[in-house]
Specification:
mainly alpha, 5 helices, elongated
Length: 117
């Protein structure tokens, strides 16, 4: 392999670093969102009657731009707001999941970025 080919490959790979970083972050955030959704479904503190409320807990990722991601956790049933806010929040699952996992998600992202230095 000639010196010119090595330099060309090196510059091409360096040029693709932002894309690779963005792809790695996308994957991390999507995975974290799915894990949070699974935890909500597993840890929901109410007794299921139909399974609808537990089954319709969801997570989505909204990407604002290259550097801003929003993980949204939500109920898919119209009475989800009552589960979250009524009865002194006894049946809440969204906020407790966020509080329990926010540091873990952020430190995982930090570790990913540190490995990419």
């Amino acid at each position: 392999m000639s010196d010119t080919n090595v330099k060309g490959d090196l510059f091409e790979n360096i040029g693709r670093l932002p894309e690779r970083m963005e792809a790695a972050i996308d994957l991390y955030v999507e995975t974290a969102a799915r894990e949070l959704e699974g935890e909500m479904k597993k840890d929901a503190p109410w007794t299921d009657r139909t399974g609808a409320a537990r089954g319709r807990l969801t997570s989505t990722v909204q990407k604002e731009n290259r550097y801003i991601y929003i993980i949204k956790l939500a109920h898919g049933v119209n009475y989800g707001v009552y589960l979250e806010l009524a009865h002194e929040k006894k049946y809440a699952v969204i906020q407790p999941t966020i509080i329990k996992n926010k540091d873990k998600v952020l430190s995982g992202l930090k570790n990913l970025l540190n490995r990419m230095k």
